[in-house]
Design goal:
With 265 residues, this protein is α/β, with parallel strands linked by helices. The chain has one domain: Carbamate kinase (3-Layer(aba) Sandwich). It is 32% helix and 15% strand. The chain contains 8 helices and 10 strands. The chain has an 8-stranded mixed beta sheet, with helices on both faces. The chain has a two-stranded antiparallel ribbon with strand order 5-6. It is globular. The structure holds 3-methylbut-3-enyl trihydrogen diphosphate.
Length: 265
Amino acid sequence: MKFGGALITKKDEECVAHLEIIQNLCAVMKSISDDGIQTILVHGAGSFGHLKAKRWRLNEGFIPDMEHPGDACSSQEEAVSQVRNDMLTLNSIIVKELENVGFEVRTHPPHQWATNLGPTFSGSLDHFSDSDSSIVHVTFGDVVDVDDDRKFGILSGDDLVARLALELPAIEALIFAMGGVDGLLKVPPHIATDEDLIEHWSPDVNYEGLHQSDIDVTGGIGLKIMRGHLVAQSGIGVYLINGEHPSRILSLLRQEPWRGTTILP
Ligand code: IPE
Protein backbone atom coordinates (compact mmCIF):
# COMPACT_ATOMS: atom_id res chain seq x y z
CA MET A 1 0.00 0.00 0.00
CA LYS A 2 1.23 3.47 -0.85
CA PHE A 3 -0.02 6.43 1.16
CA GLY A 4 0.43 9.45 -1.12
CA GLY A 5 2.15 12.44 0.42
CA ALA A 6 -0.69 14.77 -0.59
CA LEU A 7 -3.03 12.56 1.44
CA ILE A 8 -1.08 12.35 4.70
CA THR A 9 0.39 15.88 4.89
CA LYS A 10 -0.96 19.40 4.61
CA LYS A 11 0.00 20.64 1.19
CA ASP A 12 0.95 24.23 1.83
CA GLU A 13 2.29 24.00 5.37
CA GLU A 14 5.85 22.69 5.43
CA CYS A 15 6.17 19.57 7.61
CA VAL A 16 2.62 19.36 8.96
CA ALA A 17 0.97 15.91 8.96
CA HIS A 18 -2.76 15.15 8.55
CA LEU A 19 -2.98 13.20 11.79
CA GLU A 20 -6.65 12.27 11.59
CA ILE A 21 -6.28 10.86 8.08
CA ILE A 22 -3.21 8.87 9.17
CA GLN A 23 -5.12 7.50 12.17
CA ASN A 24 -8.07 6.43 10.00
CA LEU A 25 -5.74 4.74 7.49
CA CYS A 26 -3.91 2.89 10.28
CA ALA A 27 -7.24 1.67 11.68
CA VAL A 28 -8.11 0.26 8.26
CA MET A 29 -4.70 -1.40 8.01
CA LYS A 30 -5.47 -3.08 11.34
CA SER A 31 -8.80 -4.40 10.01
CA ILE A 32 -6.96 -5.73 6.94
CA SER A 33 -4.46 -7.48 9.19
CA ASP A 34 -7.32 -8.93 11.28
CA ASP A 35 -8.63 -10.41 8.00
CA GLY A 36 -5.26 -12.26 7.81
CA ILE A 37 -3.71 -10.09 5.08
CA GLN A 38 -0.22 -8.71 5.58
CA THR A 39 0.47 -5.18 4.38
CA ILE A 40 3.74 -3.49 3.47
CA LEU A 41 3.47 0.27 3.70
CA VAL A 42 5.28 2.81 1.54
CA HIS A 43 4.52 6.45 2.22
CA GLY A 44 5.19 9.61 0.26
CA ALA A 45 6.63 12.91 1.39
CA GLY A 46 4.10 15.67 0.68
CA SER A 47 5.09 18.86 2.44
CA PHE A 48 7.81 17.01 4.43
CA GLY A 49 9.86 16.51 1.28
CA HIS A 50 8.82 18.27 -1.89
CA LEU A 51 9.05 21.90 -0.79
CA LYS A 52 12.63 21.89 0.50
CA ALA A 53 13.76 19.42 -2.19
CA LYS A 54 12.35 21.74 -4.85
CA ARG A 55 13.95 24.88 -3.35
CA TRP A 56 17.34 23.10 -3.36
CA ARG A 57 16.71 21.28 -6.70
CA LEU A 58 17.65 17.97 -5.07
CA ASN A 59 15.84 16.10 -7.88
CA GLU A 60 18.48 17.42 -10.30
CA GLY A 61 21.37 16.05 -8.24
CA PHE A 62 24.49 17.91 -7.18
CA ILE A 63 24.75 21.45 -8.57
CA PRO A 64 28.13 23.08 -7.74
CA ASP A 65 27.85 26.34 -5.77
CA MET A 66 24.06 26.16 -5.50
CA GLU A 67 22.81 28.80 -3.07
CA HIS A 68 19.49 29.82 -1.63
CA PRO A 69 19.90 33.03 0.34
CA GLY A 70 17.60 33.39 3.31
CA ASP A 71 16.89 29.64 3.61
CA ALA A 72 17.38 27.77 6.89
CA CYS A 73 20.15 25.66 5.32
CA SER A 74 23.19 26.89 3.44
CA SER A 75 24.06 24.16 0.92
CA GLN A 76 22.51 21.29 -1.01
CA GLU A 77 24.35 18.81 1.24
CA GLU A 78 22.68 20.35 4.27
CA ALA A 79 19.31 20.30 2.47
CA VAL A 80 19.81 16.57 1.71
CA SER A 81 20.33 15.79 5.36
CA GLN A 82 17.43 18.02 6.45
CA VAL A 83 15.00 16.38 4.00
CA ARG A 84 16.17 12.94 5.20
CA ASN A 85 15.50 14.03 8.79
CA ASP A 86 12.12 15.52 7.88
CA MET A 87 11.18 12.20 6.25
CA LEU A 88 12.22 10.34 9.41
CA THR A 89 9.98 12.72 11.39
CA LEU A 90 6.98 12.04 9.12
CA ASN A 91 7.76 8.33 9.31
CA SER A 92 7.84 8.39 13.12
CA ILE A 93 4.35 10.00 13.19
CA ILE A 94 3.00 7.15 11.03
CA VAL A 95 4.88 4.46 12.97
CA LYS A 96 3.43 5.74 16.26
CA GLU A 97 -0.12 5.47 14.90
CA LEU A 98 0.55 1.96 13.54
CA GLU A 99 1.86 0.94 16.97
CA ASN A 100 -1.17 2.51 18.65
CA VAL A 101 -3.47 0.14 16.72
CA GLY A 102 -1.32 -2.83 17.74
CA PHE A 103 1.21 -3.41 14.95
CA GLU A 104 4.85 -4.29 15.38
CA VAL A 105 6.61 -1.97 12.92
CA ARG A 106 9.94 -2.31 11.09
CA THR A 107 11.04 0.85 9.28
CA HIS A 108 13.60 0.75 6.47
CA PRO A 109 14.70 4.30 5.50
CA PRO A 110 15.83 4.13 1.85
CA HIS A 111 18.89 6.37 2.32
CA GLN A 112 20.27 3.53 4.49
CA TRP A 113 19.80 0.66 2.02
CA ALA A 114 18.90 1.95 -1.47
CA THR A 115 20.94 3.75 -4.13
CA ASN A 116 20.17 5.08 -7.61
CA LEU A 117 16.80 6.04 -9.00
CA GLY A 118 13.78 4.88 -10.95
CA PRO A 119 12.10 1.47 -11.06
CA THR A 120 15.43 -0.39 -11.22
CA PHE A 121 17.07 1.35 -8.25
CA SER A 122 19.64 -0.74 -6.35
CA GLY A 123 19.17 -2.29 -2.91
CA SER A 124 18.11 -5.64 -1.54
CA LEU A 125 14.44 -6.10 -0.61
CA ASP A 126 15.25 -9.11 1.62
CA HIS A 127 14.39 -7.34 4.87
CA PHE A 128 10.79 -6.89 3.68
CA SER A 129 10.01 -10.60 3.48
CA ASP A 130 8.14 -11.79 6.53
CA SER A 131 4.85 -13.62 6.63
CA ASP A 132 3.43 -12.43 9.95
CA SER A 133 0.40 -10.15 9.47
CA SER A 134 0.98 -8.41 12.82
CA ILE A 135 4.31 -7.03 11.50
CA VAL A 136 4.25 -4.07 9.12
CA HIS A 137 7.35 -3.18 7.14
CA VAL A 138 7.47 0.51 6.29
CA THR A 139 9.55 2.53 3.84
CA PHE A 140 9.12 5.88 2.07
CA GLY A 141 10.18 8.22 -0.73
CA ASP A 142 13.60 9.60 0.21
CA VAL A 143 16.81 11.31 -0.93
CA VAL A 144 19.23 8.50 -1.83
CA ASP A 145 22.83 8.39 -3.01
CA VAL A 146 23.41 8.04 -6.76
CA ASP A 147 26.54 6.38 -8.22
CA ASP A 148 27.36 9.08 -10.77
CA ASP A 149 28.06 12.83 -10.95
CA ARG A 150 24.61 13.63 -9.62
CA LYS A 151 25.71 12.18 -6.23
CA PHE A 152 22.11 12.08 -4.93
CA GLY A 153 18.52 12.21 -6.14
CA ILE A 154 14.91 11.60 -5.13
CA LEU A 155 13.72 8.00 -5.04
CA SER A 156 9.91 8.10 -5.20
CA GLY A 157 7.74 5.85 -3.07
CA ASP A 158 6.04 4.90 -6.35
CA ASP A 159 9.28 3.24 -7.52
CA LEU A 160 9.74 1.54 -4.15
CA VAL A 161 6.22 0.14 -4.11
CA ALA A 162 6.52 -1.11 -7.70
CA ARG A 163 9.72 -3.05 -7.00
CA LEU A 164 8.27 -4.46 -3.77
CA ALA A 165 5.11 -5.59 -5.58
CA LEU A 166 7.03 -7.16 -8.46
CA GLU A 167 9.85 -8.85 -6.53
CA LEU A 168 8.36 -10.06 -3.25
CA PRO A 169 6.53 -13.39 -3.37
CA ALA A 170 2.73 -13.70 -3.06
CA ILE A 171 1.81 -10.03 -3.47
CA GLU A 172 -1.87 -9.91 -4.44
CA ALA A 173 -2.65 -6.21 -4.63
CA LEU A 174 -1.01 -2.82 -4.90
CA ILE A 175 -3.18 -0.02 -3.55
CA PHE A 176 -2.39 3.66 -4.04
CA ALA A 177 -4.29 5.65 -1.39
CA MET A 178 -4.54 9.20 -2.71
CA GLY A 179 -5.70 12.55 -1.38
CA GLY A 180 -8.57 14.63 -2.77
CA VAL A 181 -9.54 12.34 -5.66
CA ASP A 182 -11.58 9.12 -5.93
CA GLY A 183 -9.10 7.58 -8.37
CA LEU A 184 -7.90 8.47 -11.84
CA LEU A 185 -10.04 11.20 -13.40
CA LYS A 186 -10.71 12.03 -17.06
CA VAL A 187 -10.08 15.73 -16.38
CA PRO A 188 -8.02 17.64 -13.76
CA PRO A 189 -9.50 17.32 -10.22
CA HIS A 190 -10.60 20.97 -9.87
CA ILE A 191 -13.04 20.67 -12.78
CA ALA A 192 -14.05 17.01 -12.36
CA THR A 193 -17.52 15.79 -11.40
CA ASP A 194 -18.46 12.35 -9.99
CA GLU A 195 -18.94 11.09 -13.57
CA ASP A 196 -15.31 11.79 -14.48
CA LEU A 197 -13.89 8.85 -12.51
CA ILE A 198 -12.17 6.29 -14.74
CA GLU A 199 -13.16 2.96 -13.17
CA HIS A 200 -10.92 0.82 -15.37
CA TRP A 201 -7.79 2.23 -16.91
CA SER A 202 -5.72 0.67 -19.68
CA PRO A 203 -3.29 2.52 -21.97
CA ASP A 204 -6.01 3.27 -24.55
CA VAL A 205 -8.02 5.33 -22.01
CA ASN A 206 -7.21 9.05 -21.99
CA TYR A 207 -6.80 11.06 -18.82
CA GLU A 208 -5.65 14.58 -18.23
CA GLY A 209 -3.62 14.53 -15.04
CA LEU A 210 -2.48 17.63 -13.26
CA HIS A 211 1.21 17.48 -12.38
CA GLN A 212 2.19 20.32 -10.10
CA SER A 213 5.76 20.42 -11.31
CA ASP A 214 6.24 23.73 -9.51
CA ILE A 215 6.04 21.93 -6.16
CA ASP A 216 6.40 18.23 -6.98
CA VAL A 217 9.93 16.80 -7.37
CA THR A 218 8.78 13.31 -8.39
CA GLY A 219 6.28 12.26 -11.04
CA GLY A 220 2.74 12.99 -9.82
CA ILE A 221 -0.17 10.92 -11.15
CA GLY A 222 1.67 10.02 -14.39
CA LEU A 223 4.38 8.16 -12.45
CA LYS A 224 1.76 6.27 -10.42
CA ILE A 225 -0.01 5.14 -13.59
CA MET A 226 3.24 4.06 -15.28
CA ARG A 227 4.44 2.09 -12.27
CA GLY A 228 0.95 0.75 -11.60
CA HIS A 229 0.66 -0.49 -15.16
CA LEU A 230 4.06 -2.21 -14.93
CA VAL A 231 2.86 -4.06 -11.82
CA ALA A 232 -0.58 -4.88 -13.30
CA GLN A 233 1.14 -6.56 -16.25
CA SER A 234 2.55 -9.14 -13.84
CA GLY A 235 -0.97 -10.18 -12.82
CA ILE A 236 -1.17 -8.22 -9.54
CA GLY A 237 -4.34 -6.15 -8.91
CA VAL A 238 -3.52 -2.44 -8.94
CA TYR A 239 -5.99 0.08 -7.55
CA LEU A 240 -6.22 3.83 -6.95
CA ILE A 241 -8.50 4.76 -4.03
CA ASN A 242 -9.41 7.96 -2.19
CA GLY A 243 -7.57 7.58 1.12
CA GLU A 244 -9.92 10.08 2.76
CA HIS A 245 -12.52 7.28 2.58
CA PRO A 246 -10.33 4.39 3.76
CA SER A 247 -13.31 2.04 4.22
CA ARG A 248 -13.27 1.77 0.39
CA ILE A 249 -9.95 -0.09 0.75
CA LEU A 250 -11.60 -2.62 3.06
CA SER A 251 -14.56 -3.00 0.69
CA LEU A 252 -12.19 -3.72 -2.21
CA LEU A 253 -10.29 -6.39 -0.28
CA ARG A 254 -13.55 -7.93 1.01
CA GLN A 255 -14.89 -8.08 -2.56
CA GLU A 256 -17.71 -5.67 -1.77
CA PRO A 257 -18.67 -2.70 -4.00
CA TRP A 258 -16.06 0.09 -3.81
CA ARG A 259 -15.31 3.33 -5.64
CA GLY A 260 -11.98 3.90 -7.34
CA THR A 261 -9.84 2.99 -10.35
CA THR A 262 -8.52 -0.42 -11.36
CA ILE A 263 -5.37 -0.34 -13.52
CA LEU A 264 -5.72 -3.08 -16.13
CA PRO A 265 -2.70 -4.97 -17.56
C1 IPE B 1 9.12 11.87 -2.62
O1 IPE B 1 8.50 10.64 -2.54
C2 IPE B 1 10.29 11.92 -1.66
C3 IPE B 1 10.85 13.27 -1.37
C4 IPE B 1 10.43 14.38 -1.93
C5 IPE B 1 11.91 13.31 -0.40
P1 IPE B 1 7.08 10.34 -3.25
O2 IPE B 1 7.18 10.63 -4.71
O3 IPE B 1 6.72 8.93 -2.89
O4 IPE B 1 6.15 11.36 -2.49
P2 IPE B 1 4.66 11.90 -2.74
O5 IPE B 1 3.71 10.77 -2.53
O6 IPE B 1 4.62 12.44 -4.15
O7 IPE B 1 4.53 12.98 -1.70
